[in-house]
Amino acid sequence: MTLKDLAARLDCPYEGAGGTEISGVASPETASPGDIIFITSGQYLRHLETTRASAVILAPGIDHSRLPVLRSPHPQKTFVRAIDILVPPAPPFPGIHPMAVIDPSARIGVGASIGPLCAIGANAVIGDAAVLHPNVTVYPDVVIGPGCVLHSGVHLRQGVRLGARVILHNGVVVGADGFAYLKDEDGTQVKIPQLGTVIIEDDVEVGANSTIDRAALGATIVRKGAKIDNLVMVAHNVEIGENAILVAQAGVAGSAKVGRGAILSGQVGVPDHVTIGDGAIVAAKSGVSSNVPAGAIVSGSPHLDIMVWRKFWAAAPRLYELLKEFKRLQARVETLEKK
Hints:
eleven-stranded mixed beta sheet; nine-stranded parallel beta sheet; flat; alpha/beta
């Protein structure tokens, strides 16, 4: 594809040789002839003089003449769109593979792709153009919306509902029983039946080996546009708000709520029945101990306002010396009082 053609597809103006052939994408450091790159900040401008790329996406106002340029107010977003054009994903298996096992009562949408060793239970619904890669397990009464992509090893338990364009990566388990027990008089743990379901709304993406448990009653809900990283645990009756982000190894305990646009950084722990407000940010490795207000930024375990936490840890290395000084002054005061 020529740079001129790519510019037309991306609706961006170009400068320089419009006939330059563009066949791939790369970073400035690893690019080869035929690749297009993007650069957004001053610290990377030095790469423009050494990169082997054939073209670059730059914001307006950055002067450059060595390489042909695509101009965009958002170079990274334009680069992502260029990836979709230049490096499209491999097409899935067309239709239904003969080694898939599908209950006769299941309904398969138009253009759906179902790979080998998939198992689809009774009364399941697979939406139009949905893609099930090999070895996906769909229990009875599951509903999978149009355009969903389920990678190999995904397991959807009974009654789970996925909206449109949901992406579940390898090893995701949706709808396993929530962790709920009562201790009997003799000390044994009695399982509380988990009778609810999981509802995942449109445009949600869930990373590899993450788990979302079914509700005890009602539904565990992941709202539209939420993004969940690898190895995240979402417990029963949790609600994840629209466009929230949960980063790797975060864990959210039962009946907690994560607000719209909130961010839980890596290894954050949220206890049961706690609410994380809209737009709040919880820093990595934090242990939330109570409700977090909307828009707050917190860190630590138990969590503190981020500014308080920073002051605390700025002072922490001096605590031992301060303690010694306190003891010295205490001894001096005691000596003076005796006199």
